[in-house]
């Protein structure tokens, strides 16, 4: 198998960094992007196959810098939109600035990158891999804005899979459960007011009590991404971990029960 060139956003830490290290170790080339130049420099020093771009995916300047890096590399085979962070709190109480910022990072940034590198991906019959979440498939009290942003990314991924199939380009949304990447500790959390204590407060308390034994190995997610990159026919959505599988299945079953319950109204 010939070496691929990967573009990985959010590679300063977490899944993105671990993926970049794994991909370079197996002999592929990596364009790693992120906002923290120090962490990126450390990554590049580990392996000569990794080149880095300090860029914010939510700004035109950041997108331009990434596009320049792709052109310098001669194109990419695999795009991984990984940059992201958690935002938790009641829908009513999340500020407009916070809501817009999470959509810029999870939706409009990836969209801009996809559009910019699609000519290269099309010429190479490449892969688009978008990091979603189990919470992209459903919402719990306090995840509304985060879930909405990841759900939007998933539906874009699904449409891309259909639109680009004739060109041989695949698109997959990865849906991890809870993993030990510092995601929860680094999330933006809006403490709920008293009126939301029974719903949002209770849920956030459960999340805050998660210990190290309650989260999975991030390498599992890396392996899922590699599967999506290497498989002849990767799935449009790929849940990772028992937690994600269980909760997404329960959500889908609930939707089916609700659909069946209103069939008479719908058909009338």
TrEMBL record:
It comes from Streptomyces hyaluromycini. This is SDR family oxidoreductase. Signal peptide: none annotated. InterPro entries: KR_dom, NAD(P)-bd_dom_sf, Sc_DH/Rdtase_CS, SDR_fam, SDR_oxidoreductase. PROSITE patterns: ADH_SHORT. Its EC number is 1.1.-.-. Residues 4-179 form the Ketoreductase domain. It is an enzyme of class 1 (oxidoreductase). Gene3D superfamilies: NAD(P)-binding Rossmann-like Domain. One of its GO terms (molecular function) is oxidoreductase activity. It comes from the Bacteria. Belongs to the short-chain dehydrogenases/reductases (SDR) family. Keywords: Oxidoreductase.
